[in-house]
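Please check the following for our workbook:

***
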Amino acid sequence: MVQYNIHTAKTQLSALVDKAALGGSFIIAKAGKPMVKVIPMSPQKDVQRVGFLKGQIQIPADFNQMGQTDIINSFEGN
């Protein structure tokens, strides 16, 4: 694995980040001592959340009133 000193990493950061993004990894060293390993991140999966249950569930017409009596009784201490 390729090792770069901090000075080189600072001056070539953009190119090194591009290299890592393409799958390459490298080590950044300080005074010849390895300090960190830079590796590419795994690609994030595109997750579509809005509408993922469309057509699979039905909401009752009286949804906003469901349990209303029980809730009122709980607040009123009945």
